[in-house]
Write a structure and sequence with these properties.
The protein has 484 residues and is of the alpha+beta class. The chain has helices spanning 19-27, 36-39, 63-76, 130-139, 156-161, 169-172, 245-259, 271-280, 309-322, 335-346, 348-355, 370-384, 413-417, 420-433, 449-455, 459-471; strands spanning 32-33, 57-58, 80-83, 102-105, 112-116, 121-125, 142-143, 179-185, 191-194, 220-227, 229-230, 234-242, 263-270, 294-302, 326-331, 358-359, 362-364, 389-395, 400-406. The protein is built from 16 helices and 19 strands. The strands form 4 sheets. Strands 12, 13, 14, 15, 16, 17, 18 and 19 form an 8-stranded antiparallel β-sheet that branches. The relative contact order is 0.12. It binds 2-oxoglutaric acid (AKG).
Length: 484
């Protein structure tokens, strides 16, 4: 819930002397926000977990301006916080409270520089909104497949910096797999020119990958060359009530075994989550006759003109009905119906927010262990906080479930949120036991820095720290994120 008061920015006077004038001379008044009302939206995160301060917000218009501004900040020893659409779930783009960190918003760098339907590539600047990139690809008869709930706001720079996953990872991989080349501004203001569009390029360390998942701690992603795919010609979406978590996994395997390439998304939702969506989301309706405890959404797509997806969908659902795995199913008959099915899934975060306080656990386990993970976590959470409501949902096809917990009905939200760490520890204990990860697609940000050393100890954390020290010796890039 939005429980925190609005952020209070520090006055610009806290910048080292002369720096603000130099930045204004470089970027102009549109490129430097100093009015507290303009700065305020940049100081807190979507979940309202954090609110920080920033003496001003820099908004460079291009890579050259950003590089020059970074040089000025680096020379003055001023820490920088890269920000795109500001949709982080882990406080990854929020400055701290010191008033020393300067937010650098890349939203004005929003040109699509090139689309090539032969190479199947798009080169887009960091501030291009994900949905805009999808639409531009579609306009060229292609598909840019990365898709997630925040796609109307999240930017290319943000989704790459966090190696976002989303709904289509099962078919197309995470943001990392969709990136061929990168342009970045390093912490000292040098520009790394790596916008190659090659499918093969083994020429030493793949430096571009340092910036994907680096969450802005090693520099700014300013543009990327992305992979496109042939546009789908046929799509089918079904909403199914399933017997239990094992039945959901069995259904996934049936589709995957029949036609792996057709499964674009396979999402799990609990009865509790769907109840919340129906309660809080205007116009939401259950497309089935009866409520169930477990549901899945199946999304099939193919570029083949005679794809036969409807026959595939019906055949697999029929088999699964006969096997008792599927209890009931509805196949979307129009774009509107397919959209309405997807909305039930995509509005889970909003529905949870409207219901009250909740704690998010963006975790992953091997796909085969998803049912066990959901069951064990749900039981452990209810034992920890009687009356609390587990709301597991998400990307079953790639092993990433949002193992969220909603407060008990009528309980005090603050008292519930005070148990956040216990809740996360409870989920993480199960996830660790099942060889999973404490952060699947949201990243580490500020929320989970203490978990990195615990989960990625020894040589892994040591190498991460050495890379950070080598690339950003002054520690100016997004301090306090990823590594503490
Ligand atoms: C999703 O909907 O897939 C998200 O990543 C949001 C997860 C959440 O709200 O916990």
């Amino acid at each position: 819930p939005d429980t925190l008061p609005p952020a209070e920015p520090r006055p610009a006077a806290s910048l080292p002397s002369g720096l603000l004038d130099a930045l204004l001379a470089l970027l102009g008044p549109r490129g430097v926000l100093t009015d507290p009302a303009d700065i305020a939206p940049h100081l807190s995160d979507w979940r309202n977990l954090y609110r920080g301060s920033s003496p001003c917000v820099l908004r460079p218009a291009n890579t050259g301006e950003l590089a020059a501004a970074v040089k000025l900040c680096a020379a003055a020893g001023v820490p920088m916080v890269p920000q795109g659409g500001n949709t982080s779930m882990v406080g990854g783009a929020t400055p701290d409270e010191s008033g020393r960190q300067v937010v650098v918003a890349l939203t004005r760098m929003n040109r699509i520089r090139d689309i090539d339907p032969v190479d199947l590539t798009m080169t887009a600047e960091a501030g291009v909104v994900l949905k805009t990139a999808q639409e531009a690809a579609a306009g060229a008869g292609c598909l840019f497949p990365l898709s997630l709930g925040a796609e109307g706001t999240a930017t290319i720079g943000g989704v790459l910096s966090t190696n976002a996953g989303g709904n289509t990872t099962v078919r197309y991989g995470n943001a990392r797999e969709l990136m061929l080349g990168i342009e970045a501004v390093l912490p000292d203001g040098q520009v790394l020119h790596g916008l190659r569009r090659l499918r093969k390029d083994n020429t030493g360390y793949a430096l571009r990958h340092l910036f994907v998942g680096g969450e802005g701690t090693l520099g700014f992603v300013t543009a990327a060359t992305l992979k496109l795919f042939p546009a789908p010609r046929e799509t089918e979406v079904a909403f199914c009530a399933v017997r239990d978590e094992d039945a959901a996994l069995a259904l996934f395997r049936r589709f995957r075994d029949r036609d792996d390439s057709a499964v674009r998304a396979f999402e799990y939702m609990s009865g509790t989550g769907i109840d919340l969506a129906l309660r809080h989301i205007e116009g939401a309706t259950l497309p089935l006759a009866e409520r169930a405890d477990h549901y899945v959404l199946v999304d099939l797509a193919t570029p083949r003109p005679d794809g036969g997806l409807r026959a595939l969908m019906e055949a697999v659902l029929e088999e699964a009905l006969e096997a008792g795995e599927v209890l009931d199913a509805a196949i979307g008959e129009s774009e509107a119906q397919r959209g309405a099915i997807w909305r039930l899934r995509e509005e889970h975060p909003e529905a949870q927010k409207r219901e009250g306080a909740s704690v998010k656990n963006d975790v992953s386990v091997p796909v085969s262990r998803v049912p066990e993970m959901i069951r064990r976590c749900s039981a452990a959470l209810v034992e920890l906080i009687p009356g609390s409501r587990p709301v597991p949902f998400g990307h079953m096809g790639d092993g990433n479930i949002h193992m969220n917990l909603e407060q008990p009905e009528g309980a005090d939200p603050a008292a519930f949120l005070a148990r956040s760490h216990d809740i996360m520890d409870t989920v993480n204990a199960v996830v660790r036991d099942l060889d999973g990860s404490f952060s699947a697609e949201h990243g580490v940000g500020r929320l989970k820095t203490d978990m990195v050393a615990d989960w990625r100890g020894g040589a892994e954390i040591d190498l991460m720290r050495r890379i950070k020290a080598a690339v950003d010796p002054q520690g100016l890039m997004n301090p306090g994120k990823v590594l503490d």
